[in-house]
Design brief:
single chain; 5-stranded mixed beta sheet; 17 helices; about 50% helix
Length: about 475
């Protein structure tokens, strides 16, 4: 890896802004337009291969703390007084207009839950009594997770800010709407889980649907909280991890260990966790001197403000500035500080390019030391590669994207993989390797369609990056 050096002037909210945080096509062959020629040809859809989740890598003592924080509080901060889970085998059914790729992604997820978390969970065809929207509660089988696909507009008319979500004690949308103000769907009152409904938009990208399945089914089975300090988990609202990680699967394996049962108090669960983690994660049997300490709600609110897609740039910058100030005041040196630095870099005004670059590089160093932080560091490498491309530094683009690509592939983030491929293609074009660049663009399109949703959206991302490369070529000719 060549030294990054100084990428001046740093683009901050301009060029860097095209890569927001976030998200394959149907299995088999699909028709699409060739990138260059316009000819129609079949191509293989995006296929991530055998799952290779990032492993749980921190000491078990830290994971005990994480388990308790994730398991006994809601995202809002409300306490959950007792431990809950499904007792016995779990059935999963689907309802609504199921997108073609979603069933394959769902089955892949359930296979991972069986193999990695040891949970007896299977998809089954819904009974005749569950096919219609109206049914008697007595007809609903126990230990059921119903995954219902709905138009996004229908979902957000009731829950405006949710991309997808999970609710206990209901099995379809109409039941949820009828009970949405009832204590019956209050997770803090659940002692034993018997039913849960996961609501997913049917009209979004395949990758976002898959990401929703991972996080919401993970929460239906286990933790209901999200912690920004967990770089190695999907139970984290920063959206860097897009599929359940090794940390998450270990957490769920402990969640369903026979030593635990529904209705236990926090103290009862906490007393059993050290032995459980040591048995199920022998690599974690080592001392830890890390005490993350509490995360003040005011810092979390500042981060949420900085990440808000509906917030104006001035408001988002104010949130990022406040988050960084609070992180430094807390003396943090973990990924909470790293996220604060990264948000400030991404949202910085154009005249603060040098400071933004320093913040971004500092965030990358913190992430590289954090469990699971290699994914976050890889995103920073992509941001730096965009800047390197804008300034015509083709070899640096190739180095940065090569370093980022393994983390993108391992986390199965197709939109990320495709963006890296398009960046590499432009860099190759800059140094005269045009044929290789064109092959890479073609090869990146299956992941791009899965990640961005359509041929047009995939092409729009490719064109965005191509314009940066074109501008760099013009600059080189001056």
């Amino acid at each position: 890896m060549r030294a990054v050096g100084r990428l001046a002037p740093y683009a901050t909210a301009g060029i860097l802004g095209i890569f927001a945080l976030g998200a394959c096509t149907p299995t088999g062959q699909v028709q699409r337009l060739e990138v260059a020629s316009g000819a129609t040809a079949p191509v293989t859809s995006y296929a991530p291969g055998t799952p290779r989740p990032l492993p749980a890598s921190r000491p078990n003592a830290e994971m005990v703390t994480d388990f308790i924080e994730l398991g006994f509080a809601m995202e809002s901060g409300r306490e959950i007084p007792q431990f809950s889970r499904f007792e016995g085998p779990v059935q999963v059914i689907t309802r609504g207009p199921v997108p073609a790729q979603a069933l394959a992604d769902l089955d892949r997820l359930l296979a991972r839950l069986r193999g990695e978390a040891g949970i007896e969970i299977n998809r089954t065809a819904p009974a005749a009594s569950l096919v219609n929207a109206s049914f008697n509660a007595s007809d609903v089988p126990q230990n059921l997770i119903a995954v219902e696909f709905l138009p996004r507009r229908q979902m957000q008319a009731v829950v405006p800010n949710a991309a997808c979500f999970v609710v206990p004690n209901v099995s379809n949308w109409s039941d949820f709407v009828a009970n949405r103000r009832s204590s019956a769907i209050d997770w803090t009152r659940v002692v034993t889980r018997t039913q849960a409904a996961v609501f997913v938009p049917s009209d979004t990208t395949p990758q976002e649907i898959r990401d929703c399945l991972h996080e919401e089914i993970g929460q239906a089975l286990g933790p209901l909280n999200d912690l920004f300090r967990l770089a190695d988990s999907v139970f984290n609202d920063d959206n860097f991890q897009t599929t359940l990680t090794g940390f998450d699967m270990l957490l769920l394996r402990v969640w369903y260990a026979p030593e635990l049962r529904s209705g236990m108090s926090k103290a009862e669960v906490q007393a059993r966790l050290p032995t459980l983690f040591n048995r199920l994660n022998p690599n974690g049997r080592r001392p830890s001197d890390v005490d993350p300490g509490p995360t003040p709600r005011v810092w979390q609110q500042a981060v949420e403000q900085a990440l808000a897609s509906d917030g104006g740039l001035v408001e988002r910058r104010a949130g990022a500035t406040r988050a960084l100030s609070l992180a430094r005041a807390q003396g943090w040196r973990d990924n909470r500080l790293a996220l604060s630095l990264m948000l400030n870099a991404r949202l910085a005004p154009r005249d603060q390019g040098e400071a933004a670059l320093d913040a971004l590089l500092a965030a990358a160093e913190l992430y590289r030391r954090a469990p699971g932080g290699e994914v976050h560091a890889a995103h920073i490498d992509m941001h730096l590669a965009v800047q390197a491309l804008a300034t015509g530094q083709a070899e640096m683009v190739l180095d940065l994207t090569a370093r980022a690509l393994p983390a993108a592939e391992r986390s199965e983030n197709a939109a990320f993989i495709a963006s890296l491929g398009f960046l590499r293609a432009e860099a190759l074009s800059l140094i005269g390797r045009s044929a290789e660049a064109e092959r890479l663009r073609v090869d990146s399109f299956p992941a791009a369609r899965y990640g961005f949703g359509t041929e047009a959206a995939a092409r729009a991302r490719m064109d965005e990056i191509a314009r940066i490369g074109t501008a760099a070529q013009r600059l080189a000719r001056l």
